[in-house]
Design brief:
single chain; mainly alpha; 6 helices
Length: about 130
């Protein structure tokens, strides 16, 4: 999912590289340049709402603890809890889950875990999506 800040930067870049060069009217160009300035200021002021991350981590870390108990040492290490700030901890855990999925998909080991992982990630995606409502 693209962050609001990255979206504003992308829209600004699109205006600069696609819209502005296509304009011949000075008033229209001035309006686009003004909009680009506003978007630059807005992008610097956007602060992400991380209140939902605690619920996400509770679900992901609980599931990861159960999965670790069923995996060999090397795979379990992918899901070890990290001592980071919540957002970084979530990203690290999701990266470990991604590596685990890759391993399970390639080898077929612990195939029963894939549906469980899929369900937990689906619920997590719904939780993340609710913050946009």
């Amino acid at each position: 999912m693209i962050s609001p800040q990255r979206l504003l930067v992308a829209v600004r870049a699109d205006l600069a590289h696609r819209v502005l060069p296509a304009l011949d009217d000075d008033r229209a160009r001035s309006s686009v340049i003004a909009a680009m300035g506003i978007l630059k200021e807005l992008a610097g002021q956007v602060r992400p709402d991380e209140s939902w991350i605690a619920d996400s981590l509770a679900s992901l870390e609980s599931a990861a603890a159960q999965w670790r108990a069923r995996l060999d040492h090397e795979r379990a290490a992918l899901l070890e809890p990290a001592t980071l700030l919540p957002a970084a901890r979530r990203e690290t855990l999701l990266a470990g889950i991604e590596q685990l999925i890759d391993y399970l998909w390639r080898t077929g080991d612990h195939a029963g875990l894939l549906p469980e992982i899929r369900e937990v990630l689906r619920a997590d995606a719904e939780l993340e999506g609710k913050r946009l409502d």
